[in-house]
Amino acid sequence: MRDRKMFRLQFGLLCAAAAVLFSPPASPQSQTKNGDWPSYAADLAGTRYRPLDQINASNFSDLEIAWRIKTDNFGDRPEYKLEGTPLMVNGVLYATAGSRRAVIALDPGTGELLWIHGEHEGKRGGAAPRQLSGRGLAYWSDGKEERILYVTPGYRLICLNAKNGQPVSSFGKDGIVDLKLDDDQEIFPDLVTGEIGIQSAPVVAGNTIIIGAAFREGMTPRSMRNNKGYVRGFDVRTGKRLWIFHTIPKKGEFGYDTWEKDSAEYTGNTGVWTQITVDEQLGLAYLPVESPTSDFYGGHRPGNNLFGETLVCVDLKTGERKWHFQLVHHPLWDMDISSAPILADITVDGKPVKAVAQPSKQGFLYVFDRITGKPVWPIPEKPVEVGSVPGETYSHTQPIPSNPPAYSRNGVSVDDLIDFTPALHDRAKEIASKYHLGPVFTPPTASKLEGPLGTLTIGTASGGTNWPGGSYDPETHIAYIYACNACVEPIGLVAAPKDVSDIAYIAGTAGQEVTILRGPGENAGADSPKPKKKPASQYVPMNIDGLPLMKPPYGTISAINLDTGEILWQIAHGETPDVVRNSPALKGMTIPRTGQETYNIGTLVTKSLVIAGEGQVTTTADHPRGAMLRAYDKKTGKEVGAVFMPAPQTGSPMTYVHNGKQYIVVAVSGGPYSGEYIAYTLPSESE
Amino acid sequence: MNFLRLGSTVTLSCALFLLSSVRAQEPAAPAARSVWDGVYTEDQAKRGEPVYHKECAACHGDQLTGGESAPPLTGGAFLSNWNGLTLGDLFDRIRKTMPQTNPGRLTRQQDADILAFMLSRNKFPSGKTELYRQSEMLKEIRFESEKPTEKK
Questions:
Q1: Which residues of B fall within a CB distance of 8 Å from A683?
Q2: Rounded average pLDDT over A375-403
Q3: Beta bridge partners of A655
Q4: Whole-structure pTM value
């Protein structure tokens, strides 16, 4: 054994030597701005686009690992959900990493660690609602100074010198702005445990940093009261607060009257937890706002609830609201606006339009004139079903885009259920029969033992497009958007015992909630099912022996022409899952590639390719246990190459050029595999 | 042999070497038993249910379907993630990182009970003996998403 280890070590050294010997000669190709990746989504327009083409259809499958870095030791424990997308600017790669949410600077050619910064926040970090390494950071330079900005799990904005990772003492207090202060509200119960934080990357435009806010999952909140997710602008030089936008209006402000019975006073959340987009030229920022407190029950917040689930355009320098469009009135489905709005200069009916396109969980791409807020294609108010949960108030209409058509499923009907065989379809119908079904905006029901257990939804909490968002090619005006097409979410509501929550109804399933949430000897609310001596088994799996309840495709990438709204192509993304490929129930059948039911897949667009990794592990004849990073011809959607990853993609891929070579970096993790950034590049002999 | 060819030969050898290094770290000989062999008891799963709902459901959902910040613990994605590994790998993952706000707070027994509950929800059969609390013993139990067709 020892000999073998020795051999490994020596051979490893030989490999290292070989790597040096056969590394490519320094290329005369100069570094261009296009070779950098200076902000989370490549640019402030949210495009995830770089017109690089060294890696292309002819060589994608030849990609090799240039370097890799495990994030285990950037924190006191490993993390298994690495969601970051690094930046690469001026020959240095920056990323957040590890359970500490450390900032690391790496050599983009070798992965060598140049510096590291971590904040030890003690209880405040431990109590944070959004932990782990987050999605990334922001870079700023005035041509002389270079700064890196990020927000810690404990909600403190940190400014570092990009050259050495040291805090910039002239920023805030010793390089830190405490985001729990100066927020036009007193964060309760206290600064250490007060629920507010953020996991997205800050955005810096001009000299303004914009920071939103995030909270815990909102399915079963303890109270209708919570801290509010205001959005603030800060001076990048000093850390001074420049402006604040009240996502829940204060008394006297526009929109306050959309919170009846003074519910704006106590309702919280309504933050911007995902990426913010900025048009620096127009001096406008686009804020995608999430749901108000209590994802699925709005009985304590009657009214339309502005600016919940609203796209808000504000002045970059003052935070003043320019226009807004509420995508969902009186939100009840957790349709947070979950990803970066995409800025697109398009041509509609021969006229140029400066547009903003908003992908969504509900599979609609909402397209607006980004100066006026006017929909590019009509988004009429349409009647929707009104529910009957006690105390709830409902919006009788919702805005539904007329164009583009929905690019992923956003409602459930019997026709959407698995139908590989009649027997499987029957079993799926049996499961679905316990639920209320309907199209997009079918409201949640109270969960009843005799049925329905809830509403079977899709395109809600975890459906459609989530935080990774879409990509956009500004040359062809085509958006490329991943969506989960099978992420089913049963939404049932149960009366909350008073010791658990002061909200009348929270997410739950009849027959389970009393066991789950009730304190000893407490009575449940009037409408809840009677307690049983033994827990009733009302568990209904959302799969059939592991097979998804819905028909394929389970996950898709769609190419949408923003000049016309036409869906040019749509493909199933991802290998058919093992449980489907190996299912005894499907033996002998030929099943076309199904894609995978994962909601956190981000795409990258280059000169000729759309690139995205898989979100699930498979084991096939072509590769061992792992996942593939796939490349598609962006004109046709045809797959042109794939390269192996040891674990699923959990952070969106990015690309850059360093010393004449193009690299692709992707974050992988999940299951037993702890977080790792992997950089791919072409082997030297391919050049 | 020119330099280019030597280069690709060495590169290929290096790739094979690296692959073998990675492989060497994976669990060695296949475990004798699998999750299809009745490796937990009904009572244990019932014991794990309230613990799951108290400690895990807020993020993973009361139906184990996951949420925005936590993966599902049932269905295709979950089964694929662990297929081919062992219950020890899954147990260690829980021990090391869960509950997220205070990893390692639960006892080995509680974690084993939660795991038993997860197995029952994923329709793996129960048996007569409880699930072990020791990782090394759990590593002897293969996680297989599909029921083996031939059983001894």
A1: 8, 11
A2: 98
A3: A664
A4: 0.88
Closest CA to A573 of A428, A471, A427, A681: A471
The string of pLDDT tens digits covering residues B23-44 is: 444 445 556 799 999 999 999 9
Statement: residue A530 has pLDDT above 50: no
Between CA A28 and CA A660 the distance in angstroms is 7
Interface contact flag, B46 A548, Cβ < 8 Å: no
CA A63/CA A658 separation, integer angstroms: 16
User: pLDDT grade, residue B77 (50/70/90)?
Assistant: confident
B29-142 carries CATH number 1.10.760.10: yes
ipTM of the complex: 0.72
Q: Are strands A673-681 and A113-117 parallel, antiparallel or unpaired?
A: unpaired
CA dihedral sign, ordered A502, A506, A510, A515: negative
With CB atoms and an 8 Å threshold, state whether A671 touches B85. Answer: yes
Please say whether the beta carbons of B61 and B149 come within 8 A: no
Q: Cα A126 from chain centroid? A: 22
> CA nearest A541: which of B34, B113, B110, B63?
B63
Interface of A with B in 523-542 (CB under 8 A): 535, 539-542
The 10s digit of each residue's pLDDT in A543-600 is 898 899 999 999 999 999 999 999 999 999 999 999 999 999 999 999 999 999 988 8
For chain B, which residues make up each domain, given as ranges?
29-142
In the chain, the amino acid numbered A478 is I
Q: A291 near A330, Cβ under 8 Å?
A: no
Angle (CA) B29 B35 B40, round 5°: 125
Task: Dig out the tokens for A50 from the structure.
Answer: 């770089």
